[in-house]
Specification:
By secondary structure, this protein is of the alpha/beta class. It has 2 domains: 6-81 and 271-304, no CATH class; 90-266, von Willebrand factor, type A domain (Rossmann fold). The protein is built from 7 helices and 15 strands. The strands form 3 sheets. It has a 6-stranded mixed sheet, sandwiched between helices. Strands 1, 2, 5, 12 and 14 form a 5-stranded antiparallel sheet that branches. Strands 4-3-13-15 form a 4-stranded antiparallel sheet, with no helix packed on it. Helix 4 packs parallel to helix 5 and helix 5 packs parallel to helix 6.
Length: 316
């Protein structure tokens, strides 16, 4: 990758290479005060949501816009139209819960607690949470946007459990919910509880990743597989999380710890907007580089579609 961006990196001496999280069509007005953020729709602006950490892996709260530069298809971007914290954005979270045969022990042990945490989570006004369950032959929507009553009490015993695992079809269903809810001031997030092993979907991994990229969703993949036993399912979850700029976490850390870790992560993100650069490619590869403190580390998705996902997938 360093070879690919050699010409670009020569323009910024000593910068270290990391990545970022983009979505299209959302920007904050440059004339707005710092404490007020106004989002508007625009076909020639890019919104990047990303995470910054120091060399001790702690979130960087006081990041300044001259602390980093964006590389968008080999173009160096420093002229940002806005720069804010993600706490100023509303969340549209879709939680995908695997209740298939392969994860039944973990489902019974952890999912009741997870559902209670989702139902009573520290959400802000304007946030929405939907839940999709998948097992057997299909994925289905348990609740959409308002889940308090649907998840209260011990409802796990009424869920369909066992059977095959249509993970990729569930991701496709979740991205359709996100598209349905899409608003310019909303940040879409997928939280997947699964072992990552798909056994029956009509969709493929490539289809699922394409859909995640098209709606610019961030994926938090909670691995229900047994620790110490790397599987293809684990690799699937890691790839979905990495490509989207999210995180892969093992459920062995405990449902409460995992859930709070995801929430803390969402609250630590930054958002930057800039003019969409011209490119011969409809899929833009994006990175973000530190400009002053080379110990800073950044996490984000690896690219975005300049036409809202209508073109063919590239690089797979």
């Amino acid at each position: 990758m360093l070879t690919r961006f050699n010409r670009t990196l020569s323009k910024i001496v000593g910068l270290a290479m990391v990545c970022c999280y983009p979505t299209l069509g959302l920007a904050a007005g440059p004339s707005e005060p710092a404490e007020v953020v106004t989002f508007r729709s625009s076909v020639n602006e890019v919104r990047l949501v990303f995470f910054a950490k120091d060399d001790h892996n702690h979130p960087v709260a006081e990041l300044q816009k001259n602390d980093f530069a964006v590389i968008d298809d080999e173009r160096v971007i420093r002229d940002f139209r806005s720069f804010n914290r993600s706490s100023m954005m509303k969340l549209d979270i879709v939680v995908l819960i695997d209740s298939s045969e392969s994860v039944l022990p973990q489902f019974k042990k952890e999912m009741g607690q997870v559902l209670q945490l989702i139902s009573h989570g520290p959400w802000s006004e304007g946030d929405s949470v939907s839940v999709v369950a998948f097992s057997g032959m299909e994925a289905r929507v348990v609740c959409e946007k308002v889940c308090d009553s649907a998840l209260s009490g011990d409802h796990t015993k009424y869920w369909t459990t066992g059977g095959a695992t249509p993970l990729f079809d569930a991701v496709e269903l979740a991205t359709k919910l996100i598209e349905k809810h899409r608003r310019p001031d909303v940040w879409p997030v997928l939280v997947i509880f699964s072992d990552g092993d798909d056994t029956i979907s009509n969709s493929t991994f490539k289809d699922a990743l394409h859909s995640v990229r098209a709606v610019a969703a961030q994926v938090y993949a909670i691995d229900l597989g047994r620790p110490g036993l790397p599987t293809n399912g684990t690799a699937t979850l890691q790839n979905l999380a990495y490509e989207s700029g999210g995180r892969w976490i093992r459920i062995s850390d405990g449902a409460s710890t995992v859930f709070n870790s995801v929430i803390d992560d969402l609250h630590s993100a930054h958002v930057v907007t800039y003019k969409l650069p011209e490119s011969v490619s409809e899929f833009h590869q994006v990175q973000i580089l530190p400009t002053r403190n080379l110990k800073l580390q950044f996490r984000c998705r690896r690219g975005y579609y300049s036409t809202n996902g209508t073109q063919k997938e590239e690089g797979l």
